[in-house]
From TrEMBL, chains A, B:
It is an enzyme of class 1 (oxidoreductase). Catalyzes the conversion of L-aspartate-beta-semialdehyde (L-Asa) to L-homoserine (L-Hse), the third step in the biosynthesis of threonine and methionine from aspartate. GO terms for molecular function: homoserine dehydrogenase activity; metal ion binding; NADP binding. The keyword Oxidoreductase applies. It holds the Pfam family ACT. This is Homoserine dehydrogenase. L-homoserine binds at residue 192. Pathway: Amino-acid biosynthesis; L-threonine biosynthesis; L-threonine from L-aspartate: step 3/5; Amino-acid biosynthesis; L-methionine biosynthesis via de novo pathway; L-homoserine from L-aspartate: step 3/3. NADP(+) binds at residues 10-17. Belongs to the homoserine dehydrogenase family.
């Protein structure tokens, strides 16, 4: 039999433990698929002595010296499931430069400074795989960077954060407010004690940067991504969406834009938005993830599955490990980073979006004209207007009315300026809900 | 610049023309992604002189000699979009043995005799890619054979035939019968003049064989697949499904079974079945395809998109072309067929299924006991029984009643024998509907 391929594992938390378990349970299958057995050369952890239950691994493999482990001659592949920027970056650069292939789930690092890792991989002639960094178990990055590379991707729209999807699904199902739904998510273990990274959209923004880079062959970092979380989504917003036949999701959107002169650019953003119930993403509930891809020739595609959790993430990690192990045995490495298109990343103000705006207005002649005038002055075209009694209740309060306006697409800055101008109108009592609308016809 | 990678195209119908168009429109992007330009070396067709509209290709490239084209020294990759067993098999074997990589959409050939192609690829050291053969544009085969190879797939359930999905969706939406819905599909171009391959399940069975082979690392051919089409699905069946909160889909199902002694086998089948409206496959409408995968660690995954059509299929073909072109430039080839598991394929009678059975019975004491006795004698356990007036109408006919029975899982042979025995009971006036049930809790 061929000599074993040896793996250094950095980190042994939820995902790391499941990697160890799967390696153990599937060892015969993995060896058959690779053409050589996979062995764990060592596991770098913070505390060697910690009780790890019945983890099927020799305790002598644990070490507190990750760099020493990486540098060992008998290590072929480095698997990193620690997360965070440093010290992970230093470890992975060290491994890649030394020609050791890396499999990582570290979305924050890839989104913050993927270029450094890709450069180190090119320098060392090593593979850098990171399927687990976005949408957990869903085979997504490899289809984007391989299966669809004969096509032209125009737009990627994803639900890539399970915590916020759980919260929004709960708000939609029960009419609860954000705080109440967050509490439920925390109790059930879907939200961390400090939920900031999830509910403020940082996690989704990192994934958006990774997806956009692959879809558009362009380096996109987390700093390029416009980010809004879900903390300001209200029960009233959810009710507004329902009245429109929609639901609210935290979406990451990466879109290719072509200006009138034919110049291409991309916009990448994360924010809550209304989508029609008929859209395939609308039925993605609970903590599931899904990514909707629109390509020139392929048309609409969707990938759906579990976005987080130890076993699903470990599945994606091991899929990558098998691939790099095979490459190693064949003496080749995978295509490196593809950033040849190098498209400009446009700021949010230039992204084309649609708004759904609810207003409480004075119920008297001339109001609709005044409101419509504000849209016209900002060159925002109105798609639909619905007028009803204020508060959505039965008619008869007499003084106030509710206006619900949905726009056509316009630059986001023009839409935002329209909302600011509406707030300044004397006849507008209040702007009760502003939501972007996606996935429309 | 690196010298071009040259492609021989066999066939220039709907898919072939779109391959030519995409190669032309995306040539700069494809060259950047591959690292060398892609060129068409020749196109084998039946009639050279045919009017091909504005196809962006030199007419001198057309030839009626496919074998001559394949054998030319300046051909690196052979793309086959002709279909059928012969002469395609002879051409592809010739190409592969000569070390020329093959990209094909030919599901019938792969399902009938994939082994011959895989063996020729191994012999010639060439790549054999066939993403377009199943579920058109959806990146599915590569995720199955690469992304999930660190995991263990237990079950694949797919809607892989757009024509039948269109027909069943129409029956569900309008209450139409099969003949009427087929007529609509034909008028709209979703069904061919001779719809046999689609409505009798042959197309889906070929795809089921390909999916099962990849999912279970086992050679499965079309002959191993139990096949039932949708021609016998009635409007009454569709109504029965609705009453159960279900819809009817033509499913291809490939499942891993483990017997009490721990021996593993697979069952592969295509038949119409009821699935709950809450199942992700239930909302896959019109001519869309989707494949639902259940893996040990990854959990539930779904892949959704267009299963047919020129451009979607051409997208999948070109994705493969880019991959094999890159392999060629790198001087490597992809992992060959993985059939190491070599599991036994069990006959349909041993597959575990659930039945939904509607009976018109005499409305008198002892009937339920007699019916229940038939199930018990066949060791089939009943999950639910609903009794109502015959025909589903208002009560009061007095003499007849309707019994709707849903079973737990049992060997299909036992369920089929139960239905035969029910038909023989004097008190059973008729068995009005028999449908398998899938995707249940």
């Amino acid at each position: 039999m061929t000599s074993p391929v040896r793996v250094a594992l950095l980190g042994c938390g939820t995902v790391g433990s499941d990697v160890v378990r799967l390696l153990h349970e599937q060892s015969a299958d993995l060896a058959a698929r690779i053409g050589a057995p996979l062995e764990i050369a060592g596991i770098a952890v913070r505390r060697v002595g910690r009780d790890r239950g019945d983890l099927p691994v020799d305790p002598a493999l644990f070490t507190t010296d990750p760099l020493g482990l990486i540098k060992r001659d008998d290590v072929d592949i480095v698997v990193e499931v620690v997360g965070g920027i440093e010290p992970a970056r230093g470890w992975l650069v060290e491994a890649l430069r030394a020609g050791k292939s890396v499999v990582t789930a570290n979305k924050a690092l890839l989104a913050e400074d993927g270029a450094t890792l890709h450069d180190a991989a090119a320098e060392g002639g090593a593979d850098l795989y990171y399927e687990a960094s976005v949408a957990g178990a869903i085979p997504l990055l490899r289809p984007l960077r391989e299966s669809l590379h004969g096509d032209r991707i125009n737009r990627v729209t994803g639900i890539v954060n399970g915590t916020t999807n759980f919260i929004l699904s709960a708000m939609d199902a029960t009419g609860a407010g954000f705080a109440e739904a967050l509490e439920e998510a925390t109790e059930l273990g879907y939200a961390e004690a400090d939920p900031t990274a999830d509910v403020e959209g940082f996690d989704a923004a990192a994934k958006a940067a990774i997806l956009a880079s692959l879809a558009f062959h362009t380096r996109v970092t987390a700093a390029d991504v416009h980010r809004e979380g879900i903390t300001e989504v209200t029960a009233a917003d959810v009710a507004s969406a329902k009245a429109m036949g929609c639901t609210i999701k935290l979406l990451c959107i990466a879109a290719r834009n072509t200006d009138p002169a034919g110049r291409e650019s991309v916009s990448v953003r994360v924010h809550p938005a209304m989508i029609p119930l008929t859209h395939p993403l609308a039925s993605v509930g609970d903590a599931f993830n899904a990514v909707f891809v629109e390509a020139e020739a392929a048309g609409q595609l969707m990938f759906y599955g579990r976005g987080a959790g130890g076993a699903p993430t470990a599945s994606a990690v091991l899929g990558d490990v098998v691939a790099v192990a095979r490459n190693r045995l064949a003496g080749v490495h995978a295509a490196s980073e593809s950033a040849y298109a190098d498209l400009a990343v446009r700021p949010m103000g230039e992204a084309l979006t649609r708004y759904h705006i609810s207003l409480d207005v004075a119920d008297r002649p001339g109001v609709l004209e005044a409101v419509a005038g504000v849209f016209a002055r900002h060159e925002v075209s109105i798609a639909t207007v619905r007028q009803g009694p204020a508060g959505g209740g039965p008619a008869g309060r007499g003084e106030d009315a509710e206006l619900v306006i949905v726009t056509h697409v316009a630059p986001d800055a023009a839409l935002a300026a329209t909302v600011r101008a509406l707030r300044g109108l004397e006849i507008v009592r209040s702007v009760t809900s502003v939501l972007r609308v996606e996935g429309g016809a």
